[in-house]
Amino acid sequence: MRHVIALDVGGTGMKAALAGPGGELLHQARRATGRERGPEAVVAGILDFAAELRAYGADRFGEPARAAGVAVPGIVDAERGVAVYAANLGWRDVPLRALLGERLGSVPVALGHDVRTGGLAEGRIGAGRGADRFLFVPLGTGIAGAIGIDGRVEAGAHGFAGEIGHVVVRPGGIACPCGQRGCLERFASASAVSQAWAQACGDPEADAADCAKAVESGDARALAVWQDAVDALADGLVAALTLLDPRVLIIGGGLAEAGETLFTPLRDAVRRRVTFQKLPEIVPAALGDTAGCLGAGLMAWDLLAAATTAPGATATTSTTATPPEVTT
Questions:
Q1: 68: closest CA among 321, 326, 315?
Q2: 122-154 residue pLDDT tens
Q3: What gap in Å lies between CA 46 and CA 68, rounded to an integer?
Q4: 243 CB-near residues (< 8 Å, 6+ apart)
């Protein structure tokens, strides 16, 4: 059976899959990155994992994978296939596409940014399916974004498009590692809510999920922490929708797991802030932690589609072709 390799590399773990021609995940596996052993060991682990997937696919389906897609964190030069920088993994200028292509027998390899790759999947086959313009915003340790346009995700001129977490929403506020003060992710990420709630309730082990439960029980301290985060998030989202005019706004990540505890006040807060702007539909992400693998698989199939439509051309990005019907 025709299939591709899909890899989603996180700060601590890797998710991988073999994806079929309809995008379905035929086989899934997980493994630690082993980052405690250093950046070279992480790269070696990725190459070994991919090679094992190739061997498994060849044995099970009678032929090796036709392409591979890999999503990684940090700064990514998708056109050159280079993982430019990833603080959590200790990477600088890793030619990951070339290394994987060589290890996998010269198959085409697509490299993408983890959030944009997950956004690609959410836009095509998840919560944004059918929308010509969407913005995907996962609320996790930090906040990033993926700008979806007609079935592709915009990377920007230098690979920084969608970094909504570093929009300043509270000028002069909390210092951010990026060098600014008052960035959105310092107030509305899951880690920011965890920190604020731990301080408010006096329990250093408390996190954002605990805060959400306290909100649901009517705790006044939790309600104040939660509303501060929602207000900051709404300010950042309104700035984004003013610039981008998305049809659908997809919210994912750990904080979105609070469900309507987040979405009801967030929709209200955004609605109060818009004036001339068209209010987008605000929906939860649909694919959970499979989004990265699904997106990596889509990137790989895009390479094959591009090669089919333009013989002899070298395809290097993940955002050109419209995929077939996908079952998740």
A1: 315
A2: 999 999 999 999 999 999 989 999 999 998 999
A3: 12
A4: none
